[in-house]
């Protein structure tokens, strides 16, 4: 169980992108070459050099317009499926620490990106095609270890992002949800808060936000099976894994 | 702002109009969110659905340039539905004042007020006067019923702004209008407050000043001035532009908003007499009656010992403008285009991208012999000669780039929109040869001075007599380096000799405690009377970081320092009733304490007792000669009541409100009066779409700083133009494709962002489309980023300030290559 959690109250987000830029700055990540394809969203997707991204979605019905913003990044799952998948091939490639951070190490070079990406309910892992290293949000583990909050959370001007001990964040989430519901009766928590360290308060139905999770989360079977298999040891889990990706003929292997 | 940033959290209703605060003042949304947590309603009125609208409880569309119609309709609603705070209006505004019966209004005069001179495009304001009795005191009707009283004239004037007509003009659906009027005017009750957050969306129009006036009238009718969560709050467009206007880096004012002298005011006495209002009513504090103390102290600061009573304190050395001259931005660049100037200091700006009609600006720069570009990065202005369409070998302008330090690389104060002057420390050294502006100015001053001494000139006294005490002096009498603390102290002001005031002796050379101590006899200096108290014998008040807030309403009186005299909410004498008790008991700003005979809370707008004390008291609005806030405002060029006029370059044949098309007092720039480049095509099928410009959170102004920042360019790499799906369909434009946006004056290539957030407007049965572009791009970088949206905007400005009308003009949008 992770020590820390982050809370995202999307009702407060104005998509200012301070979080996106703070992440780049703290991690010294280069900017991607982008073009405008008819949206404010840029870069278009997470990548090896973009660990967090604000996803924009416009909804229009009955002459009312809504513009919803969603901060996407690794959820730092409590029982990370990416780690389960990785452990079969290269134990220690993906690690998890007491803070709650799920860490991609140098050994991710040994992993199959397609397999790891498929394992993630949120489609987060990305791989550098040259070095084969996989990267994603680090939960600013270096900052947390030094008593600081993650960079994105530090810089958020509107109070959208909060950080603290997991219990407190869950408590805050429920309290805040009650407030948000007064204005947005359909508001709810994302529904995965028992499994992840990034807790979301959604003020509108999930389908109104652009997030890859919507598509991915119809595959709970894979996740549950892996979670179920863990106590039985790596070998058994590895067998089960091989079984589930046997059809994946294209995935590169070391 | 009359209030301040944190105070926004106290509002019951927040109207964001003429602003996209979530976008351009993102940190302000922390306070907006807190207000919403406390149950506040957020209203967003904007031509398109913005990031602010995405957070609002209610959004209403409005065609650019029709704000007075919208707000005038609200005034009618407030009066018709008795939503106004009657006691407040009667006590604190000029609503009860009787107006000259010869005063006539646009309803009778087809869009004009009485006294219009068509040839001069100016009003003779003699009928815009108040009735006085034989003692010279203003005649009033406290019942607000007299047909000539301001209130009844206001009612009559806005009776024409019916919801049907307003909807036809603005394109705002009638039900949305009424819903917004209802919610906003619910704050007319004592104890409820609404705030307005506005910015360039209101000011950058030919009727910009009157836009603000309309809102000020609404806030006065509702009793929202001087109270917590209320006010008229301009969101300044730059972190220290409030500081720059306070120190009057503008052609018409001197530091502290003192008027700039004009040529016919040939002596200091004439200047002071013309600038110092006299109040007949002894209950009026008439604070501008202190004008000579501030002007004299300013001259002593400028000219030191050279300024004496005998020489009018050096008044002769102050530059003067010609009578009636308006040397503002549009006029300056027009003169530059005509070849009037040999040289130009472009200091911390980028006119080639920020100036309206940017092609004209760029061509004007080519007429100069020399230009000095002081900036932190190269920009389109300094590099104009190699810009698109330019032929460098035909351009004789010699350009010097003086690299400047960025704001974090020097120490000094920054004054925010809320009038808080906050001291900043130096974060790091500027790179290479970059130097702070004040160091560059100091160098320049000494060199110009030396040349004047050596070579003489037409009139060198203004240069030779000026003091330059902004640093420790070396043996040669020159300062060794600029010290911002010394400049700040000079701005605060000193006693220049021992002065006794009310039994206390203030020693020569000590800092003046506040502007109440400034004198008109030359015994004090002050570089800006408004900032007197900012740096005193107690220390640098602007550097304070005290976190106590005994008020509970977010005043934080020990954090930094606000002008005037650390008053955080101005006009706060209007926040109480005649007994001195706050209208809003839960959010009191000031409160009279009968026991101590003093005010508690914020610094009161003068320590006099409340109105119930009779003659010992003073009226609430101390900066007005009559002590009452102006609902009737005869000081403006275009009328004492705001009236809807169409933008200068407009989409429709007729103004639906009156027979005048556009503001009758604006200075016309046209091919006939100025240059062929100042061309405007109203209601022309070649440019049938309303265009507007705005900012975005990812970039800053013309992008001189942000376009070199890779992470910001990554997030917003290219110029785009937002348009409705309906317009895109008409033009065969797909989302994401490159289009050409054209006006009578220029064109830019942009990426089409086709969105539901813009919808066509129904203007009296006619469908009018609108598009908008950000103005943060320039050809220097990135290569495929696009150029400035100001290549499209017209040379026309507000009737009072001449701020360009960059928010409403006409364009066409076509697919690239068509």
Question: Could you describe the 3D structure shown?
Answer:
The complex is a heterodimer of chains A (254) and B (818). With 254 residues, chain A is an alpha+beta fold. In chain A, strand 4 and strand 5 (102-104) form a beta hairpin. Residues 218-254 of chain A have low confidence and may be disordered. Chain A has 9 helices and 10 strands. A 4-stranded mixed sheet of chain A has the order 8-1-10-9. Chain A has a two-stranded antiparallel ribbon with strand order 2-3. A two-stranded antiparallel ribbon of chain A has the order 4-5. The longest helix of chain A is centred in the last third of the chain and has 18 residues, at 166-183. With 818 residues, chain B is α/β, with parallel strands linked by helices. Chain B has a 6-stranded mixed sheet. A 5-stranded parallel sheet of chain B has the order 3-2-1-6-7, sandwiched between helices. Chain B has a 3-stranded parallel sheet with strand order 10-11-12, with no helix packed on it. In chain B, a hairpin with a 2-residue loop joins strand 17 and strand 18. The radius of gyration of chain B is 27 Å and the shape is globular. At the A-B interface, helix 1 and strand 3 of A face helix 2, helix 19 and strand 25 of B.
Percent of residues in beta strands of chain A: 15-25%
The side-by-side strand order for the widest beta sheet of chain A comes to 8-1-10-9
Number of strands of chain A: 10
Global morphology of chain A: globular
- SS-based structural class of chain B? alpha/beta
Gross morphology of chain B is globular
Order of helices and strands of chain A: EHEEHEEHEEHHEHEEHHH
Q: What's the pLDDT, averaged over the residues of chain B? A: 97
What Rg of chain B do the Cα atoms give?
27 Å
Main pleated-sheet profile of chain B: 6 strands, mixed
Instruction: Decide which structural class fits the backbone of chain A.
Output: alpha+beta
Mean pLDDT of chain A: 86
State the helicity of chain B in percent bands. Answer: 10-25%
